[in-house]
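A quick aside before the break. I want you to see a complete sequence-to-structure record at least once, exactly as it would be stored in a machine-readable document. Don't worry about memorizing anything.
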Amino acid sequence: MNDATPVDSVDKLQKVMLKYPERKNNIKIIHHALNRGSAASRNTALEGSTGTYISVVDSDDYIDPEIIEIQYNKAVIENADIVICDFSIEYPDRTKNIYEIVSEYKVENFKNMIQHDLIYSSLWNKLVKRTL
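That is the input. The structure line, written in tokens, reads:
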């Protein structure tokens, strides 16, 4: 999803696509003519998505190259609606490791965990079933 960004994220994506031409048909770039913010971008991306699961990783985030595959495999094995992984926050002088401890929770419990800061509400460490 390109939200009329002035940075070179789309150029970088297109360069990666050139390196992996066999995957080009699996990628869809959706453009907003005007910057509408992250919420509108995510909604537009969800509307245009066709996969079983969704992961939101912004251009300023970094994820391990294998993490989506690992989360997807876990989701399939467990028939999970949401798969969450641990993560690290990098600061100039230190790294903070965050361990997300979640086992089987109902959707209502998961919402409660987010609302009461019992779990990070970030999206980049979560794989979520699109139908959810």
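Two observations worth writing down. The chain has two domains: 1-50, 52-132. Helices lie at 9-19, 38-48, 67-78, 107-115. We'll return to this after the break.
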